[in-house]
Amino acid sequence: MAQYRGSPLPGVGATNPSQTKSKSNEDNWTKRPPYSICSPEEVGPVKWRGTCQCGQVTYQLSRDRPLKAKFCHCRGCQVMHGAPFQWAAIFHKSDLAFTRGAEGLSFYSSSQATRKYTLPTKVYCSFCRTPIMDEGRNVCLLFPQALESADDDENRTHWREAFEIDCHIFYGQRVLEIPDGKPKWSGLDGQSDLLDDDGQKK
């Protein structure tokens, strides 16, 4: 894997110049999980480690399995990820800790079209632009592909089982069929129609 060899990591203000100017910007977000820098004791046993492509951003997970995992087929995810769908695993914010806090991260709120830290927001490495997660108001959606164990053959089976999806969402906007027998929702899960593998309403 390529390693980050650029200039020293930018400070939060350098990465996001306008963050400190708004109403304490989401109540001083750098002081709370997952951006607050924690001691090993505060993090607890590390179940997974993740990194961006260049290695500038690293993080740890203290939960073995997500609350839920989904494939999202919405048009927004297709465009933002340059892929047919997004694979997202939902975690509590307190399950995640960035080892360098907010340094080296950049943000984009697609709902408000701003790079200022505003929830909900998409979180990236500021250097290589690897997508790290989507942060909502209550939880974060991590991308399992960035977890280091995904490259370890011995742990790959456990990794696949841990992050196996529970359902598909926005399957009505799919660009390909996935005949895996998993529940498929036309929009949000539990709030839209269930579809079959071919996208027909059940």
Automatic annotation (TrEMBL):
Residues 1-32 are annotated as: Disordered. Residues 48-186 form the CENP-V/GFA domain. PROSITE patterns: CENP_V_GFA. One of its GO terms (molecular function) is metal ion binding. InterPro entries: CENP-V/GFA, Mss4-like_sf. Gene3D superfamilies: glutathione-dependent formaldehyde- activating enzyme (gfa). Keywords: Lyase, Metal-binding, Zinc. Pfam families: GFA. SUPFAM superfamilies: Mss4-like (SSF51316). Belongs to the Gfa family. This is CENP-V/GFA domain-containing protein.
